[in-house]
């Protein structure tokens, strides 16, 4: 007996979803493609050096939580309101509030550094950072490492990966004009009017 067309399509969709879920579970690659409106960014994360931070990022990828997320903040030498001056692009969930934090893995602990293309967790107090909000360094940014004074606690930020392809895309996003109004004094002039959306994220297997 043949299934009605609607039932057959529903079964096919369910089977495909199950296959996609199984494929994600089977893939253990540490390279991730972030497919954005501006192009694709390939990153590699380091769970061996920063297990909490990298693990949280891969969890967000595997759960498909970056679909509909985006890059929404650009920090440049002409709009930075902190010291020392840095350059970076920040992205993640468009509303990262309420996301549970992970243990802070400082660069002193991991041996990683905020070099050009470094992938790192945004945070306020140590332990509040999560993959809901991350940033990419533009150029080497030692002011974001452990011991620097960008954060009063001098704990720096938690590097957990690096862009391995697509820095041209990152720099394109970094050059997008930001709004001049809105936000706190610290981020004034850095928030994009229209975020550069992430269409999809996936492990590269």
Automatic annotation (TrEMBL):
InterPro entries: Cyclophilin-like_dom_sf (IPR029000), Cyclophilin-type_PPIase_dom (IPR002130), E_coli_cyclophilin_A-like (IPR044665). It is an enzyme of class 5 (isomerase). Keywords: Isomerase, Rotamase. The keyword Aminoacyl-tRNA synthetase does not apply. Gene3D superfamilies: Cyclophilin-like. Residues 28-203 form the PPIase cyclophilin-type domain. It comes from the Bacteria. Transmembrane segments: none annotated. It holds the Pfam family Pro_isomerase. GO terms for molecular function: peptidyl-prolyl cis-trans isomerase activity. Its EC number is 5.2.1.8. This is peptidylprolyl isomerase.
């Amino acid at each position: 007996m043949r299934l009605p067309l609607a039932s057959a399509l529903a079964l096919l969709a369910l089977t495909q979803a199950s296959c996609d879920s199984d494929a994600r579970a089977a893939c253990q690659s540490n390279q991730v493609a972030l497919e954005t409106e501006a192009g694709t960014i390939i990153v590699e994360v380091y769970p061996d050096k920063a297990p909490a931070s990298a693990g949280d990022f891969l969890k967000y990828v595997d759960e498909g939580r970056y679909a509909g997320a985006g890059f929404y903040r650009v920090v440049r030498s002409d709009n930075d309101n902190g010291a020392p001056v840095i350059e970076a692009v920040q992205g993640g969930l468009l509303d990262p509030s309420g996301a549970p934090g992970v243990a802070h893995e400082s660069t002193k602990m991991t041996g990683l550094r905020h070099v050009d293309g470094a992938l790192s967790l945004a945070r306020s107090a140590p332990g509040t950072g999560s993959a809901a909000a991350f940033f990419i360094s533009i150029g080497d940014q030692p002011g974001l490492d452990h011991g620097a004074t960008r954060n009063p606690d001098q704990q720096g930020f938690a590097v957990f990966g690096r862009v391995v392809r697509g820095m041209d895309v990152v720099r394109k996003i970094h050059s997008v004009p930001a709004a001049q109004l809105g936000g706190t004094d610290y981020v004034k002039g850095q928030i994009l009017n229209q975020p550069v959306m992430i269409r999809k994220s996936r492990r590269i297997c």
